[in-house]
Design a protein that fits this description.
0% strand, mainly alpha
């Protein structure tokens, strides 16, 4: 019986992946016209590594004892300190180094998460599926083309999480701090670190010290650099670059408004954007508290995936190269759905898993392979939000099913 359920699960994963491929890539490339439609998978800029070149240029300014905040740079100051030793290398060497580190970080992230969330229940099918699709994904190619370091940063978060869960709290929080200082958005993963022993005073002091350390590191180059970073960050939030490849909630709402209402001002939609963010924040906080009460596991895989997906939607600017992190953040949720269906016979996951795989497949292809399902169709925000809903429902099902059984059992005992 177990083997049959496993075959069904693998079949549904393959079917969902093929359906997504057919609807997004197959129809746009092969099945609509007599000639194959060849579109560039990544909006490339020549020469490659445009973002890396800009980061190195800012680091060069720091080496020359000038402000690193030139042009459209809004990274925290520590980024330029980290990259400053690389300014004396040839740009193509630095580009190759970052590309190799990104590739290795992808493998290491998936491998570490697969082991961390195994709990003695192996699901190699999910691991190899995510690994294979990750390297062919549009987001991963975009990440390497721009010379970005999002996957490297996420690996630091994962290392910190693993260390923290194994009672090495200070090294774990230091890795998380480094990740926050590189990209800011990993701060959302603090929700996971708060899952453990929150009521103990020493842990609260430890988290307070971590928050203070993150704040002080913003002054590592002095108050002027802090002020310039703050100014550039707020400028980016207030006037983000809006295009179809910016999948933040704000960019998506603005894009839909400009299409549906003929470029009317989108300021009223900012209110809706804030409400969505508030809903995400409250929902995540509630799930975190619920997990504390009903689970003995250190970190819930669904919560990790929810934090990762929210991280891709909340910033005002979230370009499509951040989609390189989608396979990583989804692995724990997909793995949990698979093992719950196969091992624990919770067959509702056989519905959640293929729906999640279908939506994940839509995220693998370029904005040039647009789909007809959503307004502002090539934007990936609806896909990511759909994945949040599927993950949310799977977590609710897993959380409330034992509670419901307990309530029904107590009710029957009372009646009896």
């Amino acid at each position: 019986m177990k083997r049959n359920i496993e075959y069904i699960a693998v079949f549904l994963i393959c079917a969902a992946f093929f359906l997504g491929w057919y609807l997004v890539f197959g129809t746009s490339s092969f099945f609509t016209k007599d000639v194959m439609q060849q579109t560039p998978p990544v909006p490339a800029i020549e020469p490659m590594g445009a973002d890396l070149r800009l980061t190195l240029a800012s680091a060069s300014e720091l080496v020359e004892k000038r402000t690193p905040y030139i042009s459209a740079v809004f990274y925290p100051p520590l980024v330029f300190v980290v990259f400053s030793p690389l300014v004396h290398m040839e740009i193509h060497q630095v580009y190759q180094l970052v590309g190799i580190l990104t590739t290795l970080s992808m493998i290491a992230s998936l491998f570490m998460l697969d082991i961390f969330f195994s709990k003695g229940k192996s699901a190699p099918s999910i691991f190899f599926f995510m690994l294979a699709t990750a390297f062919f994904s549009y987001g991963f190619h975009f990440e390497i083309e721009r010379g970005q370091f999002n996957v490297i940063t996420l690996l630091c978060v994962i290392i910190g999480m693993v260390l923290f869960a194994s009672k090495r709290k200070i090294p774990g929080l230091l890795f998380l701090t480094f990740a926050i200082q590189m990209k800011v958005y990993p701060a959302i993963f603090f929700l996971l670190f708060f899952n453990q022993e929150l009521r103990k005073k020493q842990n609260l002091l430890l988290f307070a010290a971590t928050g203070l350390l993150n704040f002080l590191l913003l002054f590592i180059l002095g108050k002027q650099s802090f002020d310039e970073f703050k100014f550039s960050l707020f400028q980016q939030i207030q006037h983000p670059f809006l295009w179809v490849g910016n999948h933040s909630l704000f960019a998506y709402c603005s894009g839909v408004a400009s299409i549906a209402f003929c470029d009317v001002k989108t300021y009223p939609y900012f209110f809706g954007f804030i409400l969505l963010l508030l809903g995400l924040a409250v929902g995540l906080a509630w799930l975190q508290r619920l997990h504390q009460k009903t689970s003995t596991n250190s970190i819930n895989p669904y919560l990790f995936s929810l934090c990762g997906l929210s991280m891709l939607l909340i910033p005002a600017v979230s370009h499509d190269y951040t989609l390189s992190m989608v396979p990583i953040v989804l692995l724990p949720a997909f793995k949990e759905m698979y093992t719950q269906a196969i091992v624990n016979k919770k067959y509702l996951n056989l519905l959640f898993l293929p729906v999640g795989v279908f939506l994940y497949t839509l995220s693998l292809f370029s904005v040039t392979n647009s789909t007809v399902f959503f307004p502002y169709s090539a934007n990936k925000a609806p896909v990511l939000f759909g994945l949040i809903i599927v993950t949310f429902l799977a977590l609710l099902t897993e959380t409330f099913t034992p509670l419901l059984k307990t309530v029904l059992k107590n009710s029957s005992n009372t009646v009896g």
